[in-house]
Specification:
The protein is α/β, with parallel strands linked by helices. It has helices at about 5-20, 35-40, 60-70, 95-100, 105-110, 150-155, 170-185; strands spanning about 25, 50, 75, 90-95, 115-120, 125-130, 135-140, 145-150. The chain is about 35% helix and about 25% strand. β6 and β7 (about 135-140) form a beta hairpin.
């Protein structure tokens, strides 16, 4: 049986392993070029989009991401008020790499963050937009990328331009990239 001192020492060791190896940073998706930004700005509102129901709350996340693009007047979940009169319907077709939870940074965990690990991740969801009036569909694949680092070095990189502790999917560049992914495919 472990004595109280050993239990406390073991608990502190486990806590420090989690805290020290969990420090990190991310480099958000690259910004749009001036031509891409102008293409997005020139598009009128797409109206209302209804997000088809999906498992595990993913539809709610996609709803907030689509609304944040500024392309839609509003985004609602299927079955909510206003969904029947929606101009577009969004249907999830898959989760991108960052949403799969498949990357485990073993080196930072084993070395308490001394040895960093970096990964290039795809952000968001792949989905299909269907226009109610015409039946036209727009397929938006997983193509928005970000670099994520875990360990002490990535945590210190937060002082460098562009690097941040912020979740990459909550950045302005992600919203702009998602808007451009939709607009570039919607153009005739």
């Amino acid at each position: 049986m472990l004595g109280p001192r050993r239990v406390v020492a073991l608990a502190l060791l486990l806590l420090s392993a989690v805290v020290l190896s969990g420090c990190g940073s991310s480099l958000p998706p690259r910004a749009l070029t001036a031509a891409q930004a102008a293409q997005v700005a020139a598009v009128p509102s797409f109206g209302v989009v209804a997000i088809a129901k999906a498992e595990y709350g993913n539809a709610g996340i996609l709803r907030s991401q689509l609304e944040a693009t500024g392309l839609f007047r509003t985004a609602v979940l299927e079955g909510a008020e206003g969904a029947a009169a929606a101009d577009w319907t969004a249907t999830l077709t898959g989760r991108c790499q960052n949403r799969r939870g498949g990357w485990i940074p073993f080196l930072p965990i084993l070395t308490l963050g001394v040895v960093p690990e970096f990964a290039r991740m795809e952000l968001g969801y792949s989905f299909t937009l269907r226009e109610a009036a015409t039946g036209r569909t727009i397929d938006v694949p997983c193509e928005i990328k970000s670099t994520i680092g875990v360990g002490w070095l990535p945590a210190l990189m937060n002082v460098l331009p562009g690097w941040s502790l912020k979740e990459p999917e909550e950045t302005k560049s992600f919203r702009e990239r998602l808007a451009y992914a939709i607009v570039s495919r919607a153009a005739p």
